[in-house]
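Lecture notes, unit on protein representations.

Consider one protein chain, 142 amino acids long.
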Amino acid sequence: MAGATDRPDPAQRYKLAFDVKSTGPANAVNPALIGIARIINTLRQQGVAADHIEATAVFHGPTIAVVTKNETYRNRTGAKANPNLGLLRELAAAGVKFVICGVSAAEQNYTRDDMVPEATMNMSATLTFIDLGLKGYVKVER
């Protein structure tokens, strides 16, 4: 934005913990992923080096479907395929880590085999946010 006074600092290390809460239509890319991509792209466009961005997206509750393989996504949502897979790959290539809440996954009968290979499953989203917070990450709700 022309004239913006609050711009990213290329010297700063950005440690971001994205709390993925947004759900959207099953046949469309999840709005939270689009928001995460915009933040990463903005930082990069403003001169923040890739090695100065550490980002983790945490999926819990109904958002777990976003990081599932096509077959699981189809069975859970009725969509033909998971429309998020392309953007998930791009975000992973940009260094974004994906973490799935193990408690939510168990409650919804998801297994590790249902998930995309880029995602890891942790014990719980709450503990993940606590651990990331203690490491200096800023929680960003999406």
